[in-house]
Amino acid sequence: MTIAYLNGEFLPLADAKIPVLDRGFIFGDGIYEVIPVYHGKLFQAQEHLQRLENSLEKINLVNPYARATWLELINTLIAHNQGGSQIIYVQVTRGVAKRQHHFPENTTPTVLMTSSPFTEPNKVTEGYHVITRPDIRWLNCDIKSIALLGNVLLRQEAIANQAKETILIRDGYLTEGAATNVFVVLQGIVFTPPKNNLILPGITRDVLVKVLHDANIPCQETAVSEAQLRTADEIWLTSTSLEVAPITRLDNQIVGTGKVGAVWSTAWDLLQRYKQQILQAN
């Protein structure tokens, strides 16, 4: 039985109920965070909680808990769900109020946390297919907002085209995937768009940038044009669930040699080594 946390109570997920006037349901007025758990241990917990705090601040929603309390609650939820490898979803909305667009006064935020089983990805030998589409989303993509309709529609385009992901283009430049960050390799140099309001600051993205730098593999956080994307030797996706995944077809065109790239293989190994070091230290 899956256990959730809702507003101070641990309870069966099926029993977790939220009033219909919750602003998260009415307006998408809230934020969320996704934290991986490997063998009962949180990975990059401080970084994930910092991003949660940043998102709350950007939508002017008071953080309901101190960071130590968040950690205690999340670890308790992990234990309730039998440890192991999990994905923890944290969602905070502005709470229940009369339906009106402006912020209500004196509301209590709604805090929901759920757990899903997580199977760690394996190192693949075949790459994935992705498609490209215009980035139709709003201009505050750095907020991990629960208002994800644009992302949902774009990811559904990938599903409809038997693709792994939809990579987004805005004004001739790569931003990110519908639910991923994107890296490209050109002549041995790794590039990824810089963190700004047009992309979500991915935790896996940041870890990958770090391990590449530490291994003296050239990696630049800089604007990537659509032309560079389409002529890349390698393309990668990063996310909590994928970790780092290779792309070998872009809009049904072969990427590089059409095979999983050597730089990606090195990046995968570096990421796994870093992950094990962090988990062993915790």
TrEMBL record:
Gene Ontology biological-process entries: amino acid biosynthetic process; D-amino acid metabolic process; folic acid biosynthetic process
Catalysis: reaction(s): D-alanine + 2-oxoglutarate = D-glutamate + pyruvate; 4-amino-4-deoxychorismate = 4-aminobenzoate + pyruvate + H(+)
SUPFAM superfamilies tied to this protein: D-aminoacid aminotransferase-like PLP-dependent enzymes
GO-annotated cellular components: cytosol
Pathway(s): Cofactor biosynthesis; tetrahydrofolate biosynthesis; 4-aminobenzoate from chorismate: step 2/2
A Pfam family per the record: Aminotran_4
Top-rank EC class of the record's enzyme: transferase
Keyword DNA-binding: no
Cofactor: pyridoxal 5'-phosphate
Keyword line: Aminotransferase, Folate biosynthesis, Pyridoxal phosphate, Transferase
Domain of life of the native organism: Bacteria
EC number: 2.6.1.21
Subunit composition and interactions: Homodimer.
Family listed: Belongs to the class-IV pyridoxal-phosphate-dependent aminotransferase family.
Cross-referenced PANTHER family: AMINO-ACID AMINOTRANSFERASE, D-ALANINE AMINOTRANSFERASE
Protein name as annotated: D-alanine aminotransferase
Phylogenetic classification of the source organism: Bacteria, Pseudomonadati, Pseudomonadota, Gammaproteobacteria, Thiotrichales
